[in-house]
DNA sequence: TCAAAAGTGTTCGGACTACACCCATGA
DNA sequence: TCATGGGTGTAGTCCGAACACTTTTGA
């Protein structure tokens, strides 16, 4: 701390907006704070950045502590730095959002942190500016998912097209034509049809698909037009 | 610093990637560092975040110190937090990028900071991870400008369509058909034709246009298709 | 009069949307 | 057999891309 010693230190925290999809609805993982201030109030999972870890490492460590998961999709969202966002100290928080397969998440950890999954329209009032963070993350997810095949990160290995469609419909709070939807998705060439069917949601059963991971990596940044009339949706 | 006193402090800096357009080429404003470490080396304009200002305020103040400009387009880019990005102390830097009308920028300030405008393909080696920051900002600009009419922020009040086209062509390092380009831009309804012409670049002269600011604000988030074949360009 | 840049229209193909019926199955 | 959700094809429209000639005027 030699050279810039006259600078007042500001603490740096990470907060994680963790999305999961249970096959029907998009959900958010929240915890009940175990420490003061704001003990017992709902909050995003977060923590401080250790001097010896980068921001990305810190975010991954925090996610792992809560979910047990590594190597999941995670992206830096925004740095939140209003002066009084934390009424106690001056803390800048770098928010990350993660998309996880809800089934891989380790249940037992949730008890330790008093974690629960919330549907997006039933999110309680959160501490500090965490509701703002969640809103920002939702907008970013809507925006990005309209252009890039990012939502596969939320799905299990095998999934059906009707599942995929209900995920998109939930995120955009709209209803899409299923013929157009499946044609569009299949035309990306990212999906590989399986021989077996999911029979939980219908008598006829829906074919499973898996992601073609090579094409997925190649095409991830291509602009797709996954959503009809994106202009008309409130994306930002 | 009462409640989280056990946390090691990390300093927070801001760095600004400042883009300007001189009518022909997109440029970047860099300064020559006046302080150690890395004295005299080229660098982005930056500074520390004061305890009493938000990140956005800090970024605006830094921009103003160098350019004299207020109220310009500025957006948070990314928080850079590798452990050894600054070989001295542990400093996390929040990068912002700004788009300014190069003509409004106050020349005299540049002397104070030894600032200079650099063409994008002639950027020198910068301190720390500043070259990474510039690359990230360029990609973000390409990405965003393909979908939103953001580049008007770089133009003076009155501009011509050929100027606009050369700006786009510079950013995407491509050549666009001028018939399609002007039709597309005019179809946004954002441009208001003036009666006078710019005669600096041609004998015939090109009509000036101004931005319809109301429509611009309304339509800013609409998805436009400003660039032909965005898939084929390296946008991310 | 010539060189240099501005301005403008049409045709074609591909992509998106709207729309309705049959299929498979478990109850 | 019937109710439920899965799966598929087509026609029309719109949008974007390709493409070439005329206009203006200063030198």
Explain the overall architecture:
Two copies of one chain form a homodimer. In chain A, the strands form two sheets. In chain A, strands 1, 2, 3, 4, 5, 6 and 7 form a seven-stranded mixed beta sheet that branches. In chain A, strands 8-10-9 form a three-stranded antiparallel beta sheet. Chain A has about 240 residues and is α+β, with helices and mostly antiparallel strands. The first copy, chain A, has helices at about 55-65, 105-110, 130-145, 160-170, 180-185, 215-220, and strands at about 10-20, 25-30, 40-45, 45-50, 75-80, 90-100, 115-120, 160, 190-200, 205-210. Chain A is elongated, with a radius of gyration of 20 Å. The first copy, chain A, folds into two domains: about 10-135, Nucleoside Triphosphate Pyrophosphohydrolase (Alpha-Beta Complex); about 145-230, Arc Repressor Mutant, subunit A. The N and C termini of chain A lie far apart (about 40 Å). In chain A, about 30% of the residues lie in helices and about 25% in strands. Chain A has six helices and ten strands. The interface between A and B is large, with 42 and 43 residues.
């Amino acid at each position: 701390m030699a050279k810039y010693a006259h600078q007042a230190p500001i603490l740096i925290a990470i907060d994680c907006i963790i999305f999961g999809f249970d096959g029907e609805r998009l959900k958010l993982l929240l915890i009940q704070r175990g420490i003061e201030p704001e003990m017992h109030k709902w909050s995003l999972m977060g923590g401080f950045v250790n001097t010896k870890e980068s921001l990305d490492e810190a975010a991954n460590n925090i996610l792992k502590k809560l979910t047990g998961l590594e190597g999941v999709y995670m992206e830096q969202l925004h740095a939140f730095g209003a002066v009084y966002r934390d009424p106690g100290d001056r803390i800048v928080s770098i928010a990350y959002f993660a998309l996880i397969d809800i089934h891989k998440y380790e249940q037992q950890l949730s008890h330790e942190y008093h974690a629960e999954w919330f549907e997006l329209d039933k999110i309680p009032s959160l501490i500090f500016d965490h509701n703002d963070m969640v809103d920002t993350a939702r907008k970013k997810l809507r925006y990005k998912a309209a252009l890039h095949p990012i939502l596969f990160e939320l799905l299990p290995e095998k999934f059906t097209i009707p599942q995929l469609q209900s995920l998109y419909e939930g995120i955009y709070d709209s209803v899409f034509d299923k013929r157009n939807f499946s044609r569009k998705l299949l035309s990306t060439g990212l999906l590989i049809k399986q021989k077996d069917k999911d029979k939980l949601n219908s008598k006829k059963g829906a074919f499973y698909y898996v992601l073609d991971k090579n094409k997925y990596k190649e095409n991830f940044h291509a602009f797709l037009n996954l959503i009809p009339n994106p202009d008309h949706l409130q994306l930002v």
